[in-house]
Amino acid sequence: MRKFVLTAAVAIIATASFAAPSQAGYYNDDCQPYCYVKKVRTYDYDGNLIVKKIRVCE
Fold this sequence. Notes:
By secondary structure, the protein is α+β, with helices and mostly antiparallel strands. Helix content is about 35%, strand content about 30%. It contains one helix and two strands, in the order αββ. Strands 1-2 form a two-stranded antiparallel ribbon. Strand 1 and strand 2 form a beta hairpin. The radius of gyration is 23 Å and the shape is elongated.
């Protein structure tokens, strides 16, 4: 009986661990991420300006 309870507990934990990550990327209509474009200014070795556009989502 003890092995059965232990096996059932392991099976439930394994099932829950696979279900949680599958819901991580899901957004419904009320909860869309807010995204904007951020400009990052850096300089290379010769001193030339390099502007990168990075998309940031919150």
